[in-house]
């Protein structure tokens, strides 16, 4: 008996050890531990996809393989399968062999917000172990087998841009997208030849280089794709409509859309910019903000204020189910509301803007014009003949238009009077440098107002020492040059030469040397003289710029009255007599010829001034003679305003 006892005892010990090694899960989930260890294992598996320590049954009590649960749960998660939620459990409510647990789900969304909701996990007890009841409703209460979570983007409505009267400048307008459908093309080379004939017959923004690339693009595209050639405003498309439609059976196809556009193709284009399909560059600069096919500002104000105009996309989390006919049915579960864009309101006056653009079209050179309403400082026209916004951002010498500034400084400091004799010789030498007048003008001993009207450089150069090293700078500051403005968009306010040599000051006093300006800065000078006070020009009414410059002090009548008379004399008997009989009343102004390099033949042309309540500045790049370029542009503008 003792021997048998010794034999049996080791067998019993070995059996107990073996059981503890083979069934650790039973020990972990014993009746003493409750349902929480099994619940924790499941919640960890939900995030990681590992369920090797979890036992599942379906609602009828039948066992479910862990791999089946993994597959079904990932299918239900849909778009979120690679962004697992944060799961926070409450204490299970246990009643005999059933445990129910509320779990808070915090699911990250594509817009960086978090969708929070509560779901329920049920568990049953079989003998001494707990089992998770697997059902799609664990992921979300409204999900059933075959559903999947999806996110639908709610695109915001892009806001428009309005003019000073509240009329909409940039709004949806009809366009036609013209392209080629590869599967319908029979002879691509012959087709491109005909398209080249059509598109080179007018201004359609289609280059011959772009057309030459069409065969390769068509070859690489899907058979039913639309290989786009150009998008045209409907009014631009209509004249060539029939010629293009005659090519439809050979592959040319059309798609009608609405784009956010200004009144005309050229209307304030450099200022406003355009709206079009978002570029890769813009998408890369703001990850997650745009999707392919979104509209974005591609330049100018549309780009600067793209965030405001575009608004913020919303999203809808849905339970998505594909029907037998291939259609997709969505059941909304959660929504982040979109925020439509906010409008911009500018001070631009459409009539004045169009008048300025038509006037600039009379010269072949790049040019710009700015017009300001004197009474309130509003910019009513910001016009450019090219793609660059020279009107606001050019940095060029002002030439003799700057004599309005230096004359202000001389008169205000009492260094000269309008009637004082200031000789105008053909040449003047300062520190070994010889200064001359345009066309070798020589007036002799004449009053200062005549020097101004006839634009005598040597007379002004002789007066430069009277202003001292900072006199020009102080005069320019009083008239707004070089100050810090806030128009809401980039603008160059000028830089006035100061503290230089006698030669530099002699050049700077008539707008050469180191002094540089922009058209908007010089239009502000003209408006300040006309008004009797400098005020920062205004371009944006909504939103209002945060830090506009403070108004300058009132200018002394004893200074600006004679200066105004001198600027009138420029028109009646000086360098701008072509404006003497301009429609709309008396014109006041100053011409300018500005050398911009060491070649005297290379000159920009200027005219600044005002008529009635409108002050303006005209700049013509390489315009040479103001009387032949800038002054006629001004005359055309004033006629167009009527």
TrEMBL record:
Domain NTF2-like N-terminal transpeptidase, chain residue ranges per copy: 35-147
Superkingdom: Bacteria
Keywords, ordered alphabetically: Membrane, Signal
Residue ranges of domain Penicillin-binding protein transpeptidase in the record: 368-631
Iron is among the record's keywords: no
Residue ranges that the Swiss-Prot or TrEMBL entry lists as coiled coil: none
Signal peptide: 1-27
Domain Penicillin-binding protein dimerisation: 155-320
A single BP term in Gene Ontology: cell wall organization
Pfam families for this protein: MecA_N (PF05223), PBP_dimer (PF03717), Transpeptidase (PF00905)
Gene Ontology, cellular component aspect: plasma membrane
Alphabetized GO MF terms: penicillin binding; peptidoglycan L,D-transpeptidase activity
Presence of the UniProt keyword Acyltransferase in the record: no
Subcellular location: Membrane
Family: Belongs to the transpeptidase family.
Protein name: Penicillin-binding protein
Organism: Catellatospora chokoriensis
Top-level taxonomy: Bacteria, Bacillati, Actinomycetota, Actinomycetes, Micromonosporales
């Amino acid at each position: 008996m003792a021997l048998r006892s010794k034999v049996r005892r080791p067998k019993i010990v070995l059996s107990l050890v073996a059981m503890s090694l083979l069934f650790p899960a039973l020990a972990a989930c014993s009746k003493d531990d409750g349902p929480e260890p099994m619940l924790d294992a499941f919640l960890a598996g939900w995030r990681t996809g590992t369920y090797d320590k979890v036992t599942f049954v379906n609602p009828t009590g039948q066992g479910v393989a862990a791999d089946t649960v993994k597959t079904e749960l990932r299918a239900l998660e849909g778009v979120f399968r690679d962004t697992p939620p944060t799961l926070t459990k409450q204490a299970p409510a246990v009643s005999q062999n059933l445990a129910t647990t509320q779990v808070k789900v915090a699911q990250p969304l594509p817009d960086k917000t978090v969708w929070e909701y509560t779901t329920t996990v049920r568990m049953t007890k079989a003998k001494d172990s707990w089992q998770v009841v697997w059902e799609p409703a664990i992921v979300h209460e409204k999900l059933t087998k075959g559903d999947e979570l999806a996110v639908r983007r709610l695109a915001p409505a892009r806001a428009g841009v309005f003019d000073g009267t509240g009329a909409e400048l940039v709004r949806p307008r009809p366009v036609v997208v013209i392209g080629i459908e590869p599967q319908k093309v029979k002879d691509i080379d012959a087709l491109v030849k005909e398209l080249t004939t059509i598109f080179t017959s007018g201004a359609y923004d289609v280059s011959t280089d772009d057309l030459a690339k069409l065969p390769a693009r068509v070859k690489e595209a899907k058979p039913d794709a639309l290989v786009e050639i150009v998008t045209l405003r409907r009014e631009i498309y209509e004249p060539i409509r029939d010629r293009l439609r005659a090519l439809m059976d050979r592959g040319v196809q059309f798609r009608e859309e609405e784009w956010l556009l200004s009144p005309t193709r050229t209307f304030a284009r450099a200022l406003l910019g355009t709206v079009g399909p978002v570029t890769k560059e813009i998408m890369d600069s703001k990850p997650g903000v745009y999707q392919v096919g979104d509209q974005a500002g591609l330049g100018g104000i549309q780009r600067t204020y793209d965030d405001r105009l575009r608004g913020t996309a919303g999203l809808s989390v849905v339970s998505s189910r594909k029907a037998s006919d291939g259609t997709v049915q969505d059941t909304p579960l959660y929504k982040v509301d979109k925020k439509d864009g906010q409008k911009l309101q500018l001070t631009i006056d459409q009539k004045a803007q169009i008048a300025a653009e038509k006037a600039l079209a009379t010269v072949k050179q790049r040019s710009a014009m700015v017009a300001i309403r004197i009474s309130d400082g509003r910019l009513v026209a910001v016009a450019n003949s090219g793609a660059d916004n020279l009107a606001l951002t050019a940095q060029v010498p002002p030439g003799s238009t700057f004599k309005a500034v230096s004359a202000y400084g001389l008169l205000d400091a009492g260094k000269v009077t309008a009637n004082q004799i200031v000789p105008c010789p053909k040449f003047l030498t300062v520190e070994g440098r010889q200064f001359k007048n345009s066309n070798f003008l020589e007036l002799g001993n004449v009053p200062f107002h005549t020097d101004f009207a006839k634009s005598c450089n040597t007379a002004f150069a002789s007066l430069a020492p009277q202003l001292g090293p900072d006199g020009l700078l102080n005069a320019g500051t009083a008239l707004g040059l070089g100050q810090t403005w806030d128009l809401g968009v980039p603008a160059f306010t000028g830089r006035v030469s100061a503290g230089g040599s006698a030669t530099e000051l002699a050049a700077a006093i008539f707008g050469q040397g180191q002094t540089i300006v922009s058209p908007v800065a010089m239009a502000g000078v003209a408006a300040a003289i006309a008004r009797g006070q400098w005020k920062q020009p205004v371009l944006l009414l909504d939103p209002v710029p945060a830090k506009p410059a403070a108004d300058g002090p009132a200018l002394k009548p004893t200074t600006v009255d004679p200066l105004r008379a001198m600027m009138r004399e420029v028109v009646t008997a000086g360098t701008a007599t072509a404006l003497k009989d301009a429609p709309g009343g008396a014109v006041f102004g100053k011409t300018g010829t500005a050398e911009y390099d060491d070649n005297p033949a290379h000159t920009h042309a200027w005219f600044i001034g005002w008529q009635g309540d409108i002050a303006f500045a005209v700049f013509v790049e390489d315009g040479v003679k103001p009387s032949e370029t800038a002054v006629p542009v001004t005359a055309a503008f004033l006629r167009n305003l009527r």
